[in-house]
Amino acid sequence: MNLFVETPQIGTTAAHAAVAAAVNHARSLGITINAAVTDGSGTLMAFLRMNGAFLHSIDIAVDKAYTAASFGFPTSKWSGVIGDDELLRIGLNRRERLVLFGGGLPIVSDGARIGGIGVSGGSAEQDEACARAGLQALGLV
Predict the structure, then answer these.
(1) Are the beta carbons of 122 and 33 closer than 8 angstroms?
(2) 3-state secondary structure of 106
(3) What is this structure's pTM?
(4) How far apart are the C-alpha atoms of 52 and 46, rounded to whole Å?
(5) Residue 136: which pLDDT band, with cuts at 50, 70 and 90?
(6) Contact 106/68 with Cβ under 8 angstroms?
């Protein structure tokens, strides 16, 4: 009987490259952000805060990465998942670390979910664009 399974995870070098690329994209947009990468289990692997980025956005960026890694789809897609289900929306809003707005993307390589990237500091669209730049730096978009 096999007592453990090996799970592909994002490596440290790749995680750092992704947050650096997200920050570089934020500079091109003229915004300041916090960027985080988690592994597939939602454990923080890399984090980068730009000078002047909102302090509350630190945890939001980490939680966006955590949410994207744990569910495997962009955090911006939650409105479509919830739809008109008011009880689901209320219930999900009470879950710690679950982010229901844009800026978090899963990191998928060769069909395996290996992590998540989350960005906070701009609009939801800007945050997602910065996260996507992180994925592009890894050759995943």
Answers:
(1) yes
(2) strand
(3) 0.96
(4) 19
(5) very high
(6) yes
AA letter at 104: G
pLDDT in the model for residue 93:
86
Q: Give 11-61 as a DSSP string.
A: -HHHHHHHHHHHHHHHHHHT---EEEEEETTS-EEEEEE-TT--SHHHHHH
DSSP states along 62-80: HHHHHHHHHHSS-GGGHHH
5 vs 126: CA distance, rounded Å: 37
Residue ranges in 94-137 assigned as alpha helix (H): 124-137
Radius of gyration of the chain (CA): 15
SS3 104: strand
CA distances from 54 to 3, 22, 41, 90, 98 (A): 44, 16, 26, 26, 19
Nearest to 96 by CA among 18, 49, 42: 42
> Would you say 119 and 13 are in contact if contact means Cβ atoms under 8 Å apart?
no
**Residue of 2 and 74 predicted with greater confidence:** 74
Residue ranges of domains in the chain, CATH in brackets: 12-134 (3.30.450.150)
